[in-house]
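Q: Convert this sequence to structure tokens.
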Amino acid sequence: MARRKLSVRFKALTILCTDLARSVRFYQNVLGAAPLRQDESGGGPWYTLGSLTITLVPNAAERSPADFPTHAMPMLWLEVDDLEMAHARCGAAGVEIVAEPDELFMMIADPDGLLIEVWQSDGEPEAAG
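A:
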């Protein structure tokens, strides 16, 4: 009997947060996430962040206990056209800078300590999936 291949597609990234208003300010005002819709089930708002769809759900009681580079964890990877400008924006907003920028990337943390790598674009278009 032949086995069918399981078809998996990326739908969205759900970010569990402790303070929805604070996370909205970070993702929308600092990173530039564009609002999509509110979750009618009472979950949280939806955004596009580049080509990624994210939703913020306020159901965490504490900041992430994961410590880089000690603990396993997911890490969001973003690419920007101007790393220097992204660094200045993060600094002005009081964002936690985990690794200061070099010519290639910097690492920041969202308000709940979730790590985000921010890379300088090389100008090449992304290859399709």
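The chain has a mean pLDDT of 90.
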